[in-house]
Model the fold of this input.
Amino acid sequence: MDRRFALKSLSVAVALSGAMALPVHAQETIKVGVLHSLSGTMAISETVLKDTILMAIDEINAKGGVLGKKLEPVVVDPASNWPLFAEKARQLISKDKVVVTFGCWTSVSRKSVLPVYEELNSLLFYPVQYEGEELSKNVFYTGAAPNQQAIPAVEYLMSKDGGNAKRWVLLGTDYVYPRTTNKILRSFLKSKGVAEADIMEEYTPFGHADYQSIIAKIKKFASEGKKTAVVSTINGDSNVPFYKELGNQGLKATDVPVVAFSVGEEELRGVDTKPLVGHLAAWNYFQSIKAPANDEFIKKWSAYAKAKGIAGHKDKPLTNDPMEASYIGIMMWKQAVEKAKSTDTDKVIAAMAGQTFKAPSGITSTMDPKNHHLHKSVFIGEVKADGQFNVVWKTPGPVKAQPWSPFIPENKGKKDEPEKK
Done:
């Protein structure tokens, strides 16, 4: 009996010591959430952002981590399913105990998760251009607001250098980002004297693949006398058939230039870009930008993509704007945690105000002290035959974001900072 009691006591002691060790082990790393679609219609754009965050985490860990602890990524796949984003976000925060999440691409996915981050008081870094009309204390927006992409792009096309466009096709995927951006652009165009009859607006669902009739409609609209330009807010894998059909129907940039807000180097990978030479994209970064910081970023990504065997990138490494915005976001978060000496949400939010980072674009990005958006330079690039972009226009320096567009009348008087809740 004594022997059995001794063995039982020993097993209890071992079990207890194991239970006590669990929280200690849990504290050895800082868990970081990665919330990007790795399947479905948005995987073409989002998968590479997951890899960018993992690359940055490896880089941070190689230099000693954050607050003396290694970062531990928790990667989930919401599969281009908007309600699933909210479910996965709750899982990351409540079950996996991440202290910050880097993720989302579409505005519908961001709006799906927003109540979760606010309810549980956790942090989301959102790396993609969007429609504005939102400010949350729990979100840092490292992509462009409309005045840092859409408005400058349209101003450029209206200018002599951009071709003096007089008629406009607003073409997008049917969800909140394109519809709100086009509401802003329609108001902006009218403020510049563009008549209602000179604006055509068309939407297609996610995953749409047949653009034959829409391109034909655009050609007819453009044939009615005035110089026409297309503003594209098509998102995800629909860009591939759209650009293919553009080439099939011979719609050249010299006739009807297309400026895209969601097409970068990655989306053009699967397209024959020779017929698309001269069409445009507006971003805050291009791989072709000449800057020592960009050379370093491309070199890091190329080495990482080859080492990890990342599909498509191990042979032809490409970088793009949302990758840069993702990288800036996690590096700024690291700086803010170190300044706050804590991963506590409210302390990190306070420490993020005014953070700066030398971005791959060669521009020093600054987090606005109040509105949770980056000050960003704007670049307009022309598609080249090799799928890269030649920068044809840029702002003189970084532009401060306007989360609430002045071209939406009901925004008058709205505060340019998140409400304290």
Observations:
- Residues 2-26 form the longest helix (25 residues).
- Confidence is low (pLDDT under 50) at residues 1-26.
